[in-house]
UniProtKB/TrEMBL annotation:
Residues 1-67 are annotated as: Disordered. Residues 399-553 form the AAA+ ATPase domain. It catalyses: ATP + H2O = ADP + phosphate + H(+). Residues 50-59 have a biased composition (Polar residues). InterPro entries: AAA+_ATPase (IPR003593), ATPase_AAA_core (IPR003959), ATPase_AAA_CS (IPR003960), P-loop_NTPase (IPR027417), Vesicle-fus_ATPase (IPR039812). It comes from the Eukaryota. Belongs to the AAA ATPase family. Keywords: ATP-binding, Cytoplasm, ER-Golgi transport, Hydrolase, Magnesium, Metal-binding, Nucleotide-binding, Protein transport, Transport. Its main location: cytoplasm. Pfam families: AAA. It comes from Ectocarpus siliculosus (Brown alga). Its EC number is 3.6.4.6. GO terms for molecular function: ATP binding; ATP hydrolysis activity; metal ion binding. This is Vesicle-fusing ATPase.
């Protein structure tokens, strides 16, 4: 108690200091909404997995990450304390959630949760990997999961789910079978959790509408969560391992189940063992063992389970229901009491995305000059994903899991990958750049790589456990820009970073083609320096399809110009004398980026012309507002050419070819050697 209280006290002081140093920053429990909104403002600036992180924008101000996290954590603690009190009162008056309390009572659970949160707060003072869970809570729409063990055969999983604002949430939750679940909104706009459960007592059916806690026993439930505001929801899943139910997460009951991601489990349980052995500074006190019958922590990590895994589309649930006491469900009700409708998660295309792309026209509208490449990508990478599984199995082929886009800068590699992921990604795509992954902390880069593959692995694991057909799994697209920064030939570097890079290469290789044969992953790598890549990465089964993305030819340049002039043309702001064909001929050696720059430059000349024509009243002398003319393009060509456009593209293409040739020569086995 002592040390923990001391930490808490210190932190309260720190928070008070924050309040005075950050204008407008409030910390009372009543300011939850503001806090959560801030949290999500931060989140909006993040890349997946919080790969880059420096500051939080809170109401336009800059707040160091750590401070924001700690304050949020404190607040959750306060909330838990309040909840414990109110539930204790409810139970003592027999009005609370005691019906499911045969397993553990709400106050006891909350005590356990509080203990976990307290420890997490202490740990988050250290800038080591274990603090990641909390930074993740504040940065990610995915839940942080804290697993709390009971001394008997059961285990209690605690999910803190951070829901982002708006409609981009996964719409429904998938329960673990045979679990009991409770949920409470700890902070945020969602104030009421309404249970749709129906229970038959005697001859009458009672609808259970508990405003705060909801309990569930196995089977399906639904979380309808479109268009509500950000919230942090605490869910407690009580799970009896001994029943061997179909729990689909990454934790396994100690000593059980050989399926699934052993690595993840090992990682989680590794932390757990360390916790149980008191390796990480516990501080004793409230979080000591077996308080209220709950061992406070077995494991805590940045939760690998995205809501999309736990919570799936409601329609799916309708099918899975049909148990005797069906009709279970969970509806989140907006704080304004408004209707909450069911919706699909943003970007949830699933399967249909592949079908749509099969003509290659779907992509061609935004990416120019790469028709041949698009057709090849569709044929080599996507076609197996569009045929029935039986046919694919009869053909004896697996899916291609890796695609490498390589070529000179500015020719559309990143653009193509983005378009692919936008149109194809059933899961929100993960786009990271190689240098972002590298980290000064030992093991951190590898961990970031593992996290990138986590969703796919968990999906896969769920299929293994439930016997579902993995062919129906949504595709996880992982894009590494500048992959040469990560996957250099092993042993080619010297100095401090060489070991890190080598083990990152190993990590990526093992994820792409490891023991678990993930069919639901497509890794897209992009590079200007293919010759630097580790050859093992390029072998079939890994980055199997290597697609050159060269400088566009005249026809390609026409297409790209048409794309970049499309909007202005539609608005009637481009002179008819400007033709893509004529411009295409004049821009030999230009990359797509050069052409985009050319259009921007011509537009700037057109705007300058228009401004020059304005009279004193701001009227453009009766002429059309802005018109991009052929003359503007001539000016732009002179400007862009003098700054190296085109020439740069040509040189870089020549440089690439020379480097590639050299690398091949150097790698070739020496004759007679
Ligand atoms: N084929 C293309 N079609 C349309 N626009 C293009 C094309 N190629 C490049 N562009 C334009 O150039 C910009 C930069 O291209 P992109 O970042 O995709 O190039 P890249 O090949 O990934 O370059 P780098 O290797 O330097 O990262 C794009 O956002 C787009 O505006």
């Amino acid at each position: 108690m002592g040390l923990q209280r001391q930490h808490h006290k210190e932190h309260q002081q720190q928070r008070r200091r924050q309040e005075t140093s950050v204008p407008g920053y409030r910390s009372s429990v009543g300011s939850n909404r503001c806090r959560v909104a801030q949290t999500h403002q931060h989140q909006a600036h993040k890349t997946e997995e919080g790969v880059t992180s420096s500051t939080t924008t809170a109401g336009g101000r800059s707040v160091p990450d750590g401070e924001g996290e700690l304050t949020l954590l404190d607040e959750l603690l306060e909330r838990c304390a309040e909840a414990t009190k109110s539930d204790a009162a409810a139970e003592s008056s027999h009005t609370g959630s005691s019906e499911w309390a045969g397993f553990k009572t709400a106050p006891e659970l909350l005590e356990g949760v509080r203990a976990v949160l307290s420890r997490a707060r202490q740990r988050s003072r250290h800038s080591d990997g274990s603090a990641l869970a909390w930074s993740w809570l504040t940065l990610s729409p995915r839940p942080v999961r804290v697993a709390v063990a009971t001394p008997e055969d059961g285990r209690v999983g605690v999910y803190l789910t951070v829901l982002p604002a708006g409609n981009g949430n996964p719409p429904s939750h998938r329960p673990m079978y045979g679990c009991h679940m409770l949920s409470r909104v700890l902070a945020g706009e969602v104030e009421q959790v309404k249970s749709n459960s129906k229970r038959v007592i005697g001859r009458s059916t009672h609808s259970l509408e508990t405003p705060v806690w909801s309990s569930f026993g196995g089977g399906a439930r639904r979380l309808i969560n479109e268009s509500f505001q950000p919230a942090i929801i605490l869910e407690v899943v009580m799970y009896d391992w001994s029943r061997g139910s179909g729990y689909s997460g990454s934790y396994a009951a100690p000593g059980t189940s050989s399926s699934g991601s052993a690595e993840l489990r090992a990682e989680a349980e590794g932390i757990g063992r360390a916790e149980a052995a008191g390796v990480e500074g516990d501080g004793g006190g409230e979080s000591g063992p077996a308080k209220n019958g709950i061992l406070p922590i077995v494991a805590m990590d940045a939760c690998p389970c995205p809501p999309a895994l736990l919570f799936r589309d409601g329609d799916v649930y309708e099918e899975e229901e049909g148990e005797e006491d069906g009709g279970r469900g969970l509806t989140l009700v907006r704080s304004d009491g408004g209707a909450v409708e069911q919706g699909r998660a943003a970007g949830e295309v699933v399967g249909g995305g592949v079908e749509d792309l099969l003509t290659a026209d779907g992509l061609a509208c935004d990416v120019g000059g790469l028709d041949g490449q698009l057709e090849d990508i569709v044929r080599r990478v996507l076609s197996t994903r569009s045929i029935p599984t039986e046919l694919r199995q009869a053909l004896g082929v697996g899916h291609v899991r890796g695609l490498l886009l390589h070529g000179p800068p500015g020719c559309g590699k990143t653009l193509l990958a983005r378009e692919l992921s936008r149109r194809l990604g059933a899961r929100p795509p993960k786009l990271v750049s190689g240098p972002e992954i590298l980290d000064k902390w030992v093991g951190e880069a590898e961990r970031k790589v593992r996290l990138l593959f986590l969703d796919a692995e968990l999906d896969h694991e769920r299929c293994v456990q439930t016997g579902e057909d993995p062919a129906g799994l949504p595709l996880n697209l992982i894009c590494f820009d500048e992959i040469d920064a990560l996957c250099r030939s092993r042993g080619s570097l010297s100095g401090d970073t060489s070991g890190v890079r080598d083990s990152v290469v190993n990590q990526i290789l093992s994820k792409m083609d490891g023991l678990v044969n993930l069919q639901n992953v497509l890794v897209v790598g992009m590079t200007n320096r293919k010759e630097l890549l580790d050859e093992a990465l390029l072998r079939p089964g890994r980055m199997e399809v290597c697609m050159p993305i060269p400088l566009p030819d005249a026809a390609g340049r026409e297409q790209i110009l048409a794309i970049h002039l499309r909007k202005a043309r539609e608005a009637g702001l481009v002179s008819p004398e400007v033709t893509d064909a004529a411009l295409g001929k004049k821009t030999g050696g230009f990359s797509g980026a050069d052409l985009a720059g050319l259009v921007r430059s011509a537009t700037s000349f057109a705007i300058a012309d228009w401004r020059g024509r304005l009279d004193g009243n701001g009227e453009a002398n009766g002429e059309r507002a802005v018109e991009i003319t052929a003359e503007n393009f001539e000016q732009a060509l002179r400007e862009v050419d003098s700054s190296g456009g085109g020439r740069r593209g040509r040189l870089s293409a020549i440089g690439g070819a020379v480097r590639g040739g050299l690398a091949r020569v150097l790698r070739a086995p020496r004759g007679g050697g």
